[in-house]
Structures
1.
Amino acid sequence: MGFDTFCSLDSSDPFWDWNRTWYTSNPDLTQCFQNTVLVWLPCLYLWMCAPIYLVYLRSHDQGYICMTHLNKAKTAVGVLLWAICWSDVFYSFWERGHGSSIPAPAHLVSPLILGITMLLATLLVQYERIKGVQSCGVLLIYWLLALLCATVTFRSKILQALEQLWTVSVWRYTTFYIYYFLLLASLFLSCLTDKPPLFSQATKDPNPCPEPGASFLSRITFWWINRLMVTAYRRPLEEKDLWSLNLEDRSHRVVPQLVLRWNTECQKVKRTEQKTLYSPNTEVKEDRAVEESEILIVRPQKTKEPSLFWALCLTFGPYFLISCLYKIIQDVLMFVGPEILRLLIHFVNDSSAPAWRGFFYTALLFMCNCVQSIILQKYFHVCFVSGMRLRTAIIGAVYRKALVISSAARRSSTVGEIVNLMSVDAQRFMDLITYINMIWSAPLQVVLALYFLWQILGPSVLAGVAVMVLMVPVNAVIAMKTKTYQVAQMKSKDSRIKLMNEMLNGIKVLKLYAWELAFKDKVSEIRESELRVLKKTAYLGAVSTFTWVCAPFLVALSTFTVYVLSDEHNVLDAQKAFVSLALFNILRFPLNMLPMVISSMVQASVSLKRLRVFLSHEELQQDSVEHKSVAGSPYSISIVDWSFQLVQS
């Protein structure tokens, strides 16, 4: 049974009709398409998202929200929608038994699927309340998608009522209009946010961050930050104006996670070393007994180092993967714009095309850019939050290690090195996280851009590919030299900070013996060597930036030149030129960002090695430190019923 028979028993209602949908001045979808695809599409979305969302809610219990008027209204509207759908199902059965004509299977199956889906949506509303969810994006997208699909059917039913009044089914029209306005109510209610859960941190905090309690629309548009921006516009911000950090962003939640992962990696290495030490792989030849000297004198094996990179991935990788999903969607939408532009230019050149296509292409281009902008900003938000947590965790781990490091290891790690680890090296990881996805996104964008350019300009694109391939070895050499200079710069910086710290600690002795000029020369010498390395790095960065800034222009110039000169029939018209320039403009960003990301990765690899070496140092034995406490109290110092006052003379 095909779709035509599924929608109408006499196959009078086709599933798709181009003459009715596209090649007409008044487009409309067929009734079969409206009763099947437009009904099933929102249901398919919710049933695909529901299992994942339920698992997420079960693992992220935020408390319990008491039944509020908003929650009661959502539940009531959901029950009414469920009842409307089932009334259509019962009406189809009534028609089959009492009507003159037997209804098509679509009039029975589609309301049944829709009714079950409405029941699922209503149950999700209550389960969200139990788990403390104040605003849901999954259900809001479902209501929006259902409303958009129903709007098409709403327009079609109005046109049918105006043109073919005798074909109107009063019951189905009445239930559909009620269904449509209930969808509007559900969408409006989903835009609102519920009150915080019982015993949540937001009720205890005097100045909580409004982000967790903001609605879904407020979060994706960052509307929740407007109050702070208005306050900053009116007067300078003060400390009391700043919100408290979210619980998942605070150091007491972030730092222990990284420390636990790092200790696990260290324990793995220790267990491997112990297994190798106590289980030597000795071979007995000719049934000869193994002497003690053969066991003690063993070839030294290379010790395996614990992986700080893997510990960072396990700690912050799951949240950071959300940005990868955003980036994939944004990259795909980026290439939708040039395709819509091609269709729009083709519409302008075609005088016989109906006017509604121009409005359709323009609205589609506007919506595509809006969605792309929202997804891109959410991507950067996730990246910045991940970078902030990563930097906080690294600083906390280094600070904790500095407090428990042994005396032997302290001699190899100066104060200047520790300061650099917490400031410079941690900041480099935060800077890298923002654009680390360009490592795979940039090649993807380049491949997609070249593919679409091949569809427009043909083999002439190979000229642009050759220009990009020639620039890769240049960038590789620059990256290798940058890494060398980076290591030298960090050594000079550590020496300079160490010397400055010694000078400040011994400033009295330095003044007493008049050693200012001598130490000034030493500091200046270290600083001069550091500046020489920085100067070379700046020259390399300038060369890298110049080559990659010129790359899109050279790629476009070489491609257009080869395209025009290769064949006299190749004409560079407006459609090819504008669409190709749009694709070349997309190509510009990955080509410009890729060398910067490679340079940042080189710097981060140096910082990663420095952090791994420092965190691998031996710690003080716990039984070597004595913690004295007051008798009957777990604290070393206790002050009870005291008042303090600062007296200024």
2.
Amino acid sequence: MHRACNGKWQQFCDTGISKEELHSWLEFAGMFMSNLGNYFADGDRKTIPDVSEDALRRMASISLEITLRLDEIIDPMMAVQPSKLGYPDETSQSSFYPGEARTTKEEIVTVTRLIETQGVGAENTRVRKTSHHDAESGHWDEFQVVQACVEIDEAPGLIGDIKIGKRPGQIFLHRGDHSKEMNLICAELQEAQKYAASAEQVAELAQLIQSFQTGDYQTDFWSALKMWVKDKAPPFPGRVLRITERGLSNEVISRLRTFKLFTSWHFVSSIFWEANNINLNNNDGHNYGVKNLIYGNRMSLINHPGRPCYYVYPSEAGTYMACAHIVHFIGTAIHEVIGHGSGKLLAEQTPGEFNFDHERLPLSPITSQSIQTWYKPNEIWDSVFGKLALTAEECRAFLFAYYFADNQEIVARFGYHETRAEGLRALHSFKPNTQTWGGDHHQALPAIFKHLVQDGDGVMTVDHDPVKNIIFVRVDRSKNMSHGKLSIGRMLCKIHIWHSTADINACRPFYEDLSTVDGQYETWRNIVIANKEPKWKFVQPNTFLKGGGTVELREYEASNVGVIQSFYERDI
């Protein structure tokens, strides 16, 4: 559509649509491009354009190509269901499982386990199920595992046979999914090798290219990641932050003496991601390396002038917003580096071989008794803790960030020498009809918030005005250290030790109780739901290589049209 109108979107009004309809479409298109899809917000909920099908068809009439493309997508785009991403069912869908036959969770787990035994990673594959029936074999299912890579198999290859219940099935591997796109990626990586800063970076890119060409994820791709993690402090445009393992972790260990046996510190590289952590583990459960990045444009939203501050008293909102960015930045760094970067899993690695002293079992700081649980062979955090695994891990990382928020040595490493209402705000992600949360972080934050309200002896309270239907969080600063930090420490100790010792039976009732939204918390949630926050979009600049080796940085207007033009000019 951008190409058809040459970026002059007002031309579509000549097709008979109103300015309001055009604005609504651009709102949807800008959010779609910025989000890379029409499933976003809490829990990957589907968003439907606020434009009628008739208006869309009138807009498409500007070009035969657009008309044909719209015919292909208009029905699923405008359909209410499936309304979210997830395992395929009546209300959810996933592009990981294409085709008309619905793939069950049990089938997905069975297929994944089998292909991993054959050295095929699940991360770059999709599963297409086809059901068959014939007189000789009866009912059976074919699962075609399509693998993203450049090389294309002439025909699928049999991986193995399975049986789910009484129904047999066969699994085939077919390489070449997204072959065209993977080939373009490889071409760009080959070009990037010319500008690598070291021989190690050239080798890292070569491993990535090899992985994307062949589809080998478990060997080539992981080799590239290991090289990347070990590439300390590479040249990077912008601020580069280093935290050495010795300086940071030694100080932290001294403050967590009861955790010492349950803690395995990971070395840290130079750059941070917000909400994105690359954490590599060896087969023995010890960490190979970790690397993180923070994207400044997303972080800057914390104190953006247009961001509403619903739950802080107006008299304190200015102070809160003035320090929110710093607090969130440092908190995110501690969350990623110390939170996700710590935690030894006590395990029986192979039958009879343990990574701890099994003859003299360590004492749990929670019970002061010998631990009773640990990870058995082939068990990992995800498999033992199931649906709680991701959110409990995020909760653990948040707790580390809050516990060390007052640590002047850590804070000084970020250039500062001197918590927030996020737990209340995250209540909007809870879905009462399914008793589920829209995200792992969103479940973790209210759990911590509820724990502070119940266990903090007044350090954090909520003032609710039922007449005005407003709520404010009140923090008693005089109790921050004497009550608040101790409460955070108690919760952190429990989650961390249960994480290390595979004690799901202790963790589940504790965490699920804190995650329950009922009574006054349900009342607060209803107020949070009513306070709509803006959907943020990000306009990304592009770079273009010009004659003479110069580089042009091209920026775009901060609008939906700017978002669309930015994507269009990437020529992807």
3.
Amino acid sequence: MNKSDALWRQCGTWIKRFNLIPANHPALKNNSKLQDLLQLLRNGVVLCQLANALDPNSIDLTKVIYFPPEDNSVEDFVCRNNIFLFVRSLVTHFHLDTEICFFDPPCLYEYQDIGKVFRSLSALSWSEASQKFGIPGFPAKEHKLEKKLETEESLYSEVRSLYDKVGSSEDQIYSSSRNSGEESQDKIYDSVISPKQRKVGSLFSPKKSKRDHPIQEMIDTERTYLDNLLMVRDCFRDRISLLDADTKNEIFYGLDEMIHLHSFLQRDLSVCEKDVGRVLLKYLNQFSVYKVYCTKLSSNQAFLQNQEKSNPKLNAELVRCRLDANSSFPLSAHIVIPFQRLLKYHLMLEGILKHTDSDHPHYCNLILAKEAFIELNKEINDLKGQMEKDEKLIQADLQALTILEKVEKSIRCMHLPASSRLKEYGKMVRAGNLATHGHQGTADYAFLLHTIIIFATKPKILQHRFRFKFALKLKDYNIEHTGDCIKLTNTLNVFSSLILTTKRPSELRMWEHDLVECKSLIAPVNPRGHSLVLTNLPGKTCAHCYNKIVGALGQGYECNTCDAAIHLSCLPDISWCHMANNDDFSFRRFGSMMLPIQLQGDRGSMGSTLSLACVNIDNKDTVRELRQEWSRERENIPLEAQPWFAGNLTSSTATTRLNSLPLATFLVRQRGETDNQYALAINTGAGVKHIKIEYEKDAMAGTGLFFFTDTHKFSSLINLIDYYREHDLGEVFNYTHMKGMKLNSPYKNV
């Protein structure tokens, strides 16, 4: 078979036509392998984007979980969530045959049945929704699909066997294809500040020593640097009108102080009789302004670069400022120069020292100044590193919270204690297949958090949500690895042991490692008299290092005796609790935290199961029940978060927003300050039309009703919109351009 004719290559080419694969991705190269395409698809994100590209109504992209490719501790849950959203859309939205197109998520992300995945994608490529784009499906001859799948089965088996051998964490399958993409800006300093070549002096010019040249370079570049600071102030900061005062203060932090500092520094360097070390030491304390400036630099530069691309009006103003300044560099590059200048002082001093004898009267000041600037640079680098580390931690915590929220919604029959959320039990450490055997019951899936482990059963075929079975506090159990299983034994011997097993030994070792790590977190060795609780303490100051506990979760220890907050990493070095009885210290390990419990037969409180069980186009009762569940789920979303709600808009603004969007794109706007005054705006063949949504009080029910006409009234605005997304607007409006039209695409989704 021709290499380019391989089914998986045709699949990759088809997906590429929708601009969903970067041009430099390994899957598109001539020497690409099947693994390259599977790596791209396995977390389900591209598949969800593909369905959304075919029809924006097919998938709610807010339910898709995006996560770093290197974070594989919870990838089982993430892949399962995203792939199911795609598979569900094939059946319920694109109306493809369930028997042909449904595949269980592990068929893709564990490579259990790759043929099923390509069979589904092929069917989608030939579907009515896809053919509207004029892009041929694959394979080119649809009737040859099964033959091609049969021909490539040995290749699929090879990849599957490789996965079974190395597990989900090995680099052989999931090698990263990331490129740095960061552009260096090292040239700007040399272009703007570095001294230009001087003309050769006349024969009568005084001869300068080798030591004079680096000193003169420092003086000349100091003058040029000051000119650049003045230019940034006069041509950029003082002329930009489209940024508010707070944003400008952030971007140009300390600019006036730096201009003041370098004005006096440049003056004194010019008359210092070559004792530049003494002058720099004189103004050393004023260089502290650079500490804050440099720590803000990365975020300020990223903000400006983003605004230059996404805000045309601001970008036009910045271009005018550049023209006035006669600068070939954008503002985002100019704000880097102070940081680069600071890094040059110790290098220039070193250049002077090379030509200064140790007995020279200026030698000592040069040495002291050089060491001082090296120390200042180190301090700033440490601050920048800590800030970047804190920002990464915050982003990681925000992602952890997002995943916890998704997990919470994906487990049915689980009841959390009043006003509790899963985040109160700590971060999620691992999720995946883990079978249990014991008196508590049987389960085949587990979610490990810092303080508890939740056991559930995996979704049955054509279902999305896990079913809660039971949960355990890690503090109450000892962990023992006994060969081919893990044994959890109750510390009080109240219950018999719980046996945990996995399909692969490598997975079992990872579960054991993470269980032991979590247990050590909630029961640290030698707490030194503190009565500690592992909890969330964002913003509090650590009693040991006096730095803030950062992060969206901000996990650390809190002492119930002395109220001290302590970083997890600072625990080994803490001093004894000054309020504790050293002969009788204790460790409180979430003892008062109640566990989630199982709900019995309470479907109403569970929300939608997102189930596809028995979905059949001919089974109207099941489909109706499924749609009703989804409708109830949408009703729980606040009005402001609905993809079609635009807030308080004028009709002209709504028209402007919809004019360039596809037909049947719509929004709902608030017509005034009074409650329950709304209007529908929809793009039709005759332009954007505005329709008043009537409202009246239902005296008997004590609630309000929303409607267009008296024939159909609804208890909520959301119900009205849901109804007309399924029913013809021509039923209530006798206009030619409304015939056959439904509310198709909320404007936020287009």
4.
Amino acid sequence: MTEKSELEIEQLELEMTSKARFVDSASTSSSVEVDTAVPSYISVQNGPITPVPVKNFSGTGSSVASYKYRVYPWRWLMLVAVCLLNVSNGMMWLSFSPVPALTAVYYGISVSDVDMFSIIFFIVSLVVGFVAIILLDKVGLKVPLYIGAAMNLIGSGLRLLSSINFLICSPVPKAAFYVALLGQALTAVAQPFSLYAPTTLAAVWFGPKERALCTNFASVSNPIGLAIALVATPYIVTTVDQIPTMLWIYTIPAGVTFLLTLVAFWWKEPPIPPASSGGRDHIPPFFKGLLQVLKNWSFWVLLIFWGGAAGMFNALVTLLPQILCPYGYSDRDSGLWGALMIFFGLGGATVAGIIIDYTKMYKDVSIVSIGCAIISLVWFMEVSTFANQHVLVASSLCAFGFFALAQIPVCMELGVEITYPVAESISSGLLWSAAQVLGIAIVFISQVLTKAMSPEQIHINQCGNDIDFNSSTTLTSCHQSTHNASMPDIVGPSLILTELGPAMIFIPTFTTILFVFYVVFFRPKYKRIAAERIASFEASVYVGNRQTK
């Protein structure tokens, strides 16, 4: 079938009022009916792609267009592998953040140095992100995910190596810390390879009505890893000498995931694509595709909206202890509630993924979910300023997580739809990079807006008060006999002496501005849907012509 001009494609859009059926070549017991009537808001810029007709057409005389599109059961193992890799990597990211005081004691560093374990994740993943986008576009899923799984395991091993006595008791200041930081940097290298892969996995291996669900599970699995670290670390590490135990525990999933990834992604791509858009022949070269994306106004609106919304969520997770501690809530409270927020978010993302898979109402679902998220955020900011409101604070965070994380499958799939036929890794990579950049910016602005705690807030502050830094159960014999024994400038009971009152006004205000901007300026054209419907119409005409001969 020859490539059509734009005028011919416009004519096809007007003519497509019939229905075509896709019949899985592997099964004759069921078919999926697709309405090929194209709404007025859909347009196609790059023309349709050529479908693959089934060679064993039955010739029964029915007006059924049989396509050789197929999905493989192996795709579910691939999804599990990507999910576990993202979970493991998320656990690496926040391993030390829930216990900054004990981490500072263990490595002989300041609490501000502990923040480097998180900051280096942002920096390294941003730098490596561009390489990940190129590799996913050029060589597909297999090699990038092998690299990601390997870096995640090697980095985890280096972090564990930092706990050996030779480094901990080294006369070289902070020797163990620098080894652990190097390991953290290597695990950060893995993040863009696993985080940018879900949309490509969904497009290459999953059917049209499974894509959003695949993107949802694979993308939300990274926040699940964060939630596990937020909950597990404070309970695993109650004394300094339990830091190595935590490192051991977090290395095990990295090893299992590495082996699973090697097996799951043995094949680069399916022999037969799952849909007309699942083939790779229609994808333009990387830099040409990148230029197309950068010229796409709708994508810029989505990039700003998603980057700000996701960055705000990341900032809230990071700042949650500082928001809650001045009002009498403990760091364990904030860790548990942060985890609940993420787990409820998984439910919201799953519901949103199912809805958009079957309705394709991307923008409508996005507007409803972010609107409800803003209402929940304002609710949380209000009730969190009152002491002893554990149920209300937890409920508001759960509601916020449910609606906020629903944006993940919606925005990731929207990015693919409005930039089609550009490689999925380009849109998803740019969206996640924007979230990281704006997340850092929001955290920085929030820190600038901090103010000193009032005497009443200092009195009820629960963070850092449960650690006795002179206790023999806190300092190991090695720490007591080396340079690490000097603790006064490292940590203390007054670990958190500031509160984020002004930032609690800034965060929901900024999110509301993003919401209005998105509603007013986002005018999407669902190019992938249009291309698939055109392909289905062409196939029905193709088979019909064969029947009349």
